[in-house]
């Protein structure tokens, strides 16, 4: 492996790349158009019910269930139940939850006996939706306290703060668009390049020089890393300046960028290698790329998709890249990010191994 | 002292599925020779050359280039061999100058783009993207890239096909220069006069076999039908040639073709014309060219099929 060869190839490839307006369009203009489009359509529209997670440790008690039903009937909150056997703090951070209420095990018995009982409300005060949930809970608590006309407050609401904050749509869109660039910029050009180099026998031509296949691959990887990083910087800048995204920038985005670009550069080479013509390469490339483009949480969090589609998302490699980027930029949830990274590395390794197997410069 | 062979091949076979592209050929190319492969389309020339270059694997048979097996040791031979493939293509939006510089860096030689572009007269379009070059200009870039590493052995697969007459002459000059510098050149061409002029030895291929091999003059001597006189038709002249001189002659349209055996025959024709006041307006003496022999050989092959 010679650095001189990699640089020479990078120079030639980048020139060839920058001279193509379509390539530039897809990396720099297209994500911007999407951001302007989706950003203006969906920004600021928040649904009326805010999400609230409830862990009921007193699930057999009828009062706790009545409490939850009452809370639900306020229509201010959209309740999701947390199993009673999990550690609430871990669960909150793993699921990037901004508002959660814990009902203790002795809720029904204490309430009926008129003994004080504490509800714990985990929330991020910086997040506007969490105060909506808090108000809904307070109203319900007052209702319960007054209903039994006890002199003293039987139910008390105790707040605990969590660091997770609720994201705006734009905060989701930015990592999604970065993921989109990581996917499309190497995928589209590599499938095309590999199949057309094969057809025009340019690989054969290169095989007659001291340039090796790995040097060639590495130079492509470096190039798409540069291009994707620039595009990501552009996307973030526009998102912050134009849409006031409050996304937290983190150096932990870099591993996802690197692994993602590596994965899709390999996948592009693989798709180009296994196809017999330029036409079939573009078909194979599109079959791989398009579902991933829409189903990996690129434009919307996958949570809004129906369950079966969510399962589909979980087998798409891009999902783990975008989920990881979301985890580090929106939720600062490094445990989940690490898991995403591990999955991504494993998938990238498998794809790369297949690429090594199938990518050949020689004909027999 | 017999010069060493640069290439030797024996009983080489290569099939694509059911097509026997190369069907058992053996030959040797000596160092410093210009060796030319001739043959109709699909004869197996490119396939043969590609096996010598190490970019195609022979099904069976032995090939050595500088005592190495090209398919196995392609990387060892890379610095000694220059290759211009048939239908050379390159990266779309890269200029000839950039392409040559790229190759110079890869081969670790100083930038010789100026010199090479000059050699094939490409300087004018050195900054035009490859995709916008004309067919002939593209081919010239291929020749330049083949010469970047100062190769001892140069493969040129149809370097002059599609070039204008002036450009072809330029390439001939280049091939002569390469030979003068002591390089070995493998030249594939469809222009027989080109091979006759440039090649030390030629191999005429058909259906994957070498049907004849040797120096152009030897082949002409061996396969040619001697000298041929072509002159305009007249009854008396035709009768004289046929009856008196007993020469093998035939009429085609307004001219007579006669195979002559000696200068005497030629003189007698002129004397006869002079005596009988026949005004000769056309008179030419030719030897069979390589092309005549080629056409005969190939049509014979076809008949025997
Ligand atoms: N990659 C390939 N796959 C299948 N068949 C091939 C391939 N390359 C060549 N052939 C076949 O092998 C035969 C010899 O082809 P080759 O290219 O060696 O001929 P050639 O003598 O160079 O012809 P030309 O003068 O037209 O360049 C032809 O019948 C051709 O169709
Ligand atoms: Mg050919």
Entry summary:
The complex is a heterodimer of chains A (364) and B (305). By secondary structure, chain A is α/β, with parallel strands linked by helices. Chain A has helices at 3-18, 21-42, 62-73, 88-94, 107-113, 128-147, 169-199, 202-207, 213-243, 253-274, 278-295, 307-313, 317-331, 334-358, and strands spanning 50-56, 77-82, 99-103, 117-123, 155-161.
How would you sum up this structure, described in words?
The complex is a heterodimer of chains A (364) and B (305). With 364 residues, chain A is α/β, with parallel strands linked by helices. Chain A has 2 domains: 3-44 and 167-358, no CATH class; 50-156, abc type-2 transporter like domain (abc type-2 transporter like fold, 3-Layer(aba) Sandwich), CATH 3.40.1710. Chain A has helices spanning 3-18, 21-42, 62-73, 88-94, 107-113, 128-147, 169-199, 202-207, 213-243, 253-274, 278-295, 307-313, 317-331, 334-358, and strands spanning 50-56, 77-82, 99-103, 117-123, 155-161. In chain A, helix 2 (21-42) packs antiparallel against helix 7, helix 2 packs parallel to helix 9 (213-243) and helix 10 packs antiparallel against helix 11. Chain A is elongated. Chain A starts with a helix and ends in a 6-residue tail after the last helix. Chain B is of the alpha/beta class. Chain B folds into 2 domains: 5-222, P-loop containing nucleotide triphosphate hydrolases (Rossmann fold, 3-Layer(aba) Sandwich); 226-287, Reverse transcriptase/Diguanylate cyclase domain (Alpha-Beta Plaits, 2-Layer Sandwich). Chain B contains 11 helices and 13 strands. In chain B, strands 5-6-7-3-8-9 form a 6-stranded mixed beta sheet, sandwiched between helices. A 4-stranded antiparallel beta sheet of chain B has the order 11-12-10-13. In chain B, helix 3 (96-107) crosses helix 4 (113-119). The longest helix of chain B is centred in the middle third of the chain and has 16 residues, at 165-180.
